């Protein structure tokens, strides 16, 4: 074979240059990089190139396969093999808008999932896992719920618990069970958006009650109760969504006292209690007959379980709640409910939650370092509430961040009244990789430091 018989892009193979198929693939890559081969150029058939190089066909086949793996080549059937067009890398958005648990630190979640499902399938009748169940959960599910809530309440009567397909379903069923169309629901000025959605769907009126640095103001709540005769008061007292405020114990006792004096029900939505550093006792411990308590696994373990535990001490209210729940969500899925029960009872849930808590705290330290003086988090939980400099509005910033591939949630999304704070919520758990989260926070910090550019909409 003569040198002139070789394709111009391919040097002679070296006996000491490593595997020959890799020499061919490397030469292909270098030729594409320097422009000797261009997208759309046709390569020699494999047999022809094998003859030219005096190698066996398998070597060339392996070289072409390696080049395809590197996205250098593409096959076009009978027409042959061609140099591929450059692969376009679309940058995924850095989503700082969704409150989900971060990947657990030091926990092999895939193995935990496989082991948990294996145990469930060994111990449960598969037919029972795939059929209808009465709403409220099995005895085992309720016992698991009582164990899950033990850090908050100590020993609980498991029969006072209801197992629900997530906290949103529980909130909706409580609104249906405990209020009438046109009734008022009181909440803090910034509150969980799912509450507003459910209230609007069911024809209830949502009214904001003034809050301070410790949460809802007790005197303002009492005034609002006497004025509006609300059906419910909605509170999220631990690492509040979105402000990340944790009510001190004294404030919780004061709000419980108002509920007792005004004979109004409090719905205490408490998804972050187990993630918090030494949180006070739930409001439900101070007014057990006035408070319905919700604890979802979505924030401490994983949203995919779709399991929440609801503590309702009054038997009649519990039955009304179950009837309301059955009207739109017959039951929690037996398979995921059984998995949650297995994890709680065998201790896996505790290990997973600790891993999530450790990772969340590491991410808060990252956010504190990058956002510097703007950081106002509590050092735990899943999110940061960031008050903005006067030259940015929340909507402006959210829009500017989106243009740079970052999703954040402006304060308007959480407003229960006509006004909202000039702030955004930054969620720290939804981006799996720490380095990508760090990049997103750094880009956001740079954006905050400069003034907004005039907005001009594209016209087409």
Q: Overview of this structure, please?
A:
This protein has 460 residues and is an alpha/beta fold. The chain has three domains: 3-83, Arc Repressor Mutant, subunit A (Orthogonal Bundle), CATH 1.10.10.10; 94-100 and 351-449, Alpha-Beta Complex (Aspartate Aminotransferase, domain 1); 109-349, Type I PLP-dependent aspartate aminotransferase-like (Major domain) (Aspartate Aminotransferase, domain 2, 3-Layer(aba) Sandwich). The chain has helices spanning 20-34, 46-53, 57-69, 109-123, 126-129, 139-153, 167-178, 193-201, 218-228, 249-262, 315-326, 334-346, 348-371, 394-403, 434-449, and strands at residues 73-75, 81-83, 94-95, 161-164, 184-187, 205-208, 211-212, 215-216, 232-235, 265-269, 291-296, 308-311, 383-387, 406-407, 409-410, 423-427. Strands 4-12-11-10-9-5-6 form a seven-stranded mixed beta sheet, with helices on both faces. Strands 13-16-15 form a three-stranded antiparallel beta sheet, covered by helices on one side. Strand 9 (232-235), helix 10 and strand 10 (265-269) form a beta-alpha-beta unit. In the C-terminal section; belongs to the class-I pyridoxal-phosphate-dependent aminotransferase family.
